[in-house]
């Protein structure tokens, strides 16, 4: 069996690792449009004029979960030093959040900066292609990307599957990465409940302002520069240290939080040959988005391996 996984976030990498274990004779290719693994666990770097490089956890500052799949994943990462538990259900990556997905992607065949634009039937297989070139033919495909993106790929070959994916909704989020000239003493600061939900430190000199859900939704289509100006002004009103910034850059997470999840651990279509998984697929034991992503990815791999 030759399988493709679209998406190298938590769900896609959990699926890939499970599939390797369950079906070692299968061949696997993983495609991700980003420059590295992670989705919301990506860590952004910025170089200051002084030459110092700062790291910003501009997506998720921590991951949470209680399911066996999630606990097993974090325990394994903790043994290698890529993560640590901060409570009985919360963990962080070391030295930054992207260490979690970087460790999970290690030794997996991931092709980054590769956007799958279409899935086309090819006899008993599916052909994946970028906008300009083919990516290969595969017996099975796992879509581990946000449901709206998965629906776009699935609709031409399985409208019923796409319709189910259309029922899943997300809430967006803006985040602002900022480097103050002077360092606040706390690691976390409360927001104003209007524009900023809270401010979090990744490391000395590197802070992320997390915008409120309402402001993010109402200002989703702002340019990054305009969003940065608005959030930087709000941060300056919250703490004087943020009035003088050495760096400020905003990032829009269009699919930040799952607002209306599926009640299934994964979805399956195209006569069992396409599976969809991710943080939007809730199971009875999952606690949060990261928990659901890991559990769903593993469940999809198990279903694929059993067919």
Secondary-structure element order, N to C: EHEEEEHEEHEEEEEHHEEEEHHEEEH
The number of helices is 8
CATH superfamily of the largest domain: FAD/NAD(P)-binding domain
Architecture (CATH level 2) name of the largest domain: 3-Layer(bba) Sandwich
Brief account:
This protein has 307 residues and is an alpha+beta fold.
Give the helices and strands, then pairings:
Blueprint: E1 2-6, H1 10-22, E2 27-31, E3 44-47, E4 53-56, E5 63-64, H2 68-80, E6 83-85, E7 90-93, H3 98-105, E8 110-111, E9 118-122, E10 125-129, E11 134-138, E12 140-143, H4 147-154, H5 159-166, E13 169-180, E14 188-190, E15 196-203, E16 206-211, H6 213-218, H7 224-238, E17 245-260, E18 267-269, E19 274-276, H8 289-306
Helix pairs in contact: 1-8, 2-8, 4-5
Could you walk me through the main structural features you see in this protein, from its secondary elements to its overall organization?
The protein has 307 residues and is of the alpha+beta class. It folds into two domains: 2-43 and 67-168 and 261-306, FAD/NAD(P)-binding domain; 171-258, Polyamine Oxidase, Chain A, domain 2. It contains eight helices and 19 strands. The strands form five sheets. It has a six-stranded mixed sheet, with helices on both faces. Strands 14-15-16-13-17 form a five-stranded antiparallel sheet. Strand 15 (196-203) and strand 16 (206-211) form a beta hairpin. The N and C termini lie close together (11 Å).
